[in-house]
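Minutes, project check-in

Agenda point 3 was the complex the collaborators sent over. CS summarized: two entities, 1031 residues total, and the question is how they sit relative to each other. Sequences were read into the notes so everyone works from the same version.
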Amino acid sequence: MQDTVKKFLVFITVCFLIYAGYLIHLVMVRGPALSKHGANPRPWIIENRVVRGGIYARNGEKITDSTIEGDKITRKYYYPLPYAHLTGYHSRRLGKTGLERAYDKELLGQHGHSKRNLEARWGIDRTEGENIYLTIDHELQLKAWELMSPYKGAAVVLDPRNGEILAMVSTPSFDPNNDSLEKNWDQLRQNSGHPLLNRSSQGLYPPGSVMKIVTAAVGLDKFPQLGNEYFNCQGEITIQGRVLHDLRVHGSVDLKRAMALSCNCYFANLGMDIGSEDFTNGLKDFGWGEKIPFDLSVERSPLKKDSLQSPNALAESAMGQGEILVSPLFMALIAGSIGNQGVMMTPYLVQDIRSPEDRVVWKQGPRILRLVAEPEAAWQVQEAMMGVVRSGGTGSAASLPGINVAGKTGSAENPSGPTHAWFVASAPAEQPRAAVSVIVEHGGQGGTTAAPIAKELLRLALLREG
Amino acid sequence: MIWVVIALKYLILLLICLFVMVVFVNSRTGDKINKAALLVLRSASAAVPEGKRWVIDKGVVLGRSSECAVSLPDPYVSNRHARIILQDNRYYVTDMGSTNGTLLENHPLTTPQILRNGSQLQIGGFTLKAELPEQSKADRSFLLPLFPGLILGAGSLELYREQLLGVQDITLLAVAALLLVVSSFIAEYKEKGAPLLIHLVGVLSALGLVFIYRVDPYYGSRQVYWVMAGYSLFWLIQIFLSEYRRLLDYKYIFMVLSIVFLVFTIVFGVEAGGANRWLSLGSFRFQASEFVKIFMVIFLAGYLEENKEILRVGTLKFGRFYLPDWPYLGPLLVICGFSLLLLVFQKDLGMALLFFATFLVMVYIATERSYFLLLGLGLFSVGAVLMYYIFPHVQSRMLIYMDPWQQLDGGGYQVIQSLFAISGGGIFGQGLGSGFPKLIPAVHTDFIFSLIGEELGLLGVLGILGIYYLLIWKGFQISLNAHDGFGALLACGFSSILALQTLIIIGGVISVIPLTGIPLPFLSYGGSSFVSNCFLMGILYKVSVESERDIDEQEASMRAVMMDR
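CS then shared the predicted structure for the full assembly.
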């Protein structure tokens, strides 16, 4: 009998260990997500004894704050439409999104163990939450909104040297102020323009010809002499019996010229030369299939293992059609990293968090995300992209007087209508201080619709930086 | 100001961690027996210097052969001469049929004898002295019995500061603290028995009181009375039950009582909390199944003890397996099936699960036949599937378990709020009095664990798990050391009930297994639960007391034999 007792005791011991392990998992791993869950009423109870912190732009412009009117605390968004997708909304009925959700604990002063936070947690006094300062340049953000608002689409401006997001808009937008939001909720949800969607980080689009930047960089990594080689474009290329048409016959082109003219045949051919394995690895190096760490959730660009096997799929992907998808934020990161000698910096939106006494309690700084290309290859691509913006290139509408701009146009074919107009660029091309990506849904040619917007944004971004 | 608040909020967590640590350290010093040794006083060989020590550990063989752990190279020593074995925390010495015999304290060994500290063994030309560390209660802890009082004190201070308690509540809590501490001291300074049981139960009861008061002082004050009643019952059992073996004579009475209780609940039961498990006597409701679980264990222990030999050998053949004859198997199946059926009709799924599992475990332990376990699990699976299709409430429980998020505001609400609470506590918790118990329905009964998780954090709940584990572990130790089969079965049945009940409800609350509402022993609010668990503890403690007395009596009789000589 002693044996069976001992066996059962072992069983009980194992059960207790499993429970302990599960509890640790529940608190340490699932805890953060559960505490932000929409169905968790606890943060809302804390809201009654904390004045929620505000959200401020780079130079202290007030975007959002909470005001007390009598016994009621109301959340006010001062620039509702341009910032809606960044701040998100904050409603007892509808929950929290955006930064309101991601930085809920900080805004409520529940993060950390400072005296003020503990007082807030234990309801000793009604205290104030912490304030969030963004990397966003307020004027640039408003400008981006103004330029984009006639269209559906998104624009992202960032500093490629450190990953700071300078502007990030998505159109159409919505008014996150509570009374308006709750009143229009059903309409917002059913609107075919999807105003609640943050296109800049969560919209996935086919990149069209802007993909040629990536193809060129991957090609240069594999064939260092690629820049000196010529290819004869006959206006169409036949791959396994399928004919891919180009806009016109470009004749003998090298990399720079193929980029400037956006020659499809050249890049389709280059993609096939790279081969499916190296091309897939190249995409992985750029970040396809990987998570982009960011203050807001980012839709990751998918990378399916078998999708690049056939020469046709490879050729299509190399010129930006097929199954390749990117978000505008990701495209801005790519454009920036090419200009930044192949170093992609981790993007960030929140510069620091300050206590109500204006003391910085938490700070984000530049971090390298990944190395996407050799500096030599990156510079050759950058040079080719400068040709795009010079006169005669497809993106000449984005040229700035006295400053070299490196850019690339794209017109992404899609099943639902006219092509999406893309433009990505960085300037000054030699050492970019700003990178931009603009997409206008169904905007036709990237060079005519998107490039002028990108130009304005670049001009203002460089001006603001001094 | 803030420092005072921090201290008050977390004092109770500190005490729990400290308590678990002290218990652990104490149990380590209890292991000294492993360092027992034999010391050479006189040697007959140059190879064995005088003063040499052999550690005995779990037992050794003494002899001339070099393969013996204690090798004594002397022609007067037989190859394998004598052996020392460890049993029930005692060392016994036996002669192994040696040519020249073994002398213990100058008396030749004929039967196995207890080896005591300082006893001298003579084997051939060797004289060996036994050095056994005293395992008596010399190192009584003054600290452990204080913990229930300290926890109640720390808890009531903070709850008073949070204005959750009145002066009257404090008085009641002080009385409860006194009762718990005095009980623990009596147990600690009593000569026999396992005082750790009382300390563990005391700490759990104190924590239960603090958190029940924290939810609602109305329930808290009632729970104080239940604690008093439970502890009184515990001591009454110690005083008036002369021998636990006497329960054996009444085993069929306990069986009949079980059935009567359950039938009464079905006929006169009152529904509360979705389960029809309450028996109402005027203004006083009690939950019969809590007592039936104990009666059932007593009956099973008695029945299995008498029939385990027969149950071990089967006569009915099913394929490769043999089952015992119906006259022996029948009563078991009838009582088990009957109580299960009643419980299921009461919608008391947690209790049904607990009964069935305990039944299975006891039969398995008593008969040592794993096919009973397999058969039981098979029956359980079939039964579970049937119940899933027959009873809508079983089905909804299962669906909630599979995906509580589907029913955020419906059936899944309780479990999800519990998960929010535990995960929201983080490592150290929100601090006592700073959680949100009102968000979880039934937080003072089935879901008290979630509240503790929220306010005392991961450390707190791991500490609680540790305390339960120690309690269960101690129960099984008592079972292993019990002198007779009935005592062993009683102790292990009660330990199994505690273990399974704890696992079933905590597992439900953290959503490891489907939720079936039963109280968490000693922590949850509930008079029936607390008093019946004290009853259980009383008998378990009784078994521990008597198992020590048995050893002492044996020793006394041995001394008498020696005197005769």
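Noted in discussion: The CA atoms of residues 155 and 393 of chain A lie 22 Å apart.
Follow-up: revisit at the next meeting once the mutant set is ready.
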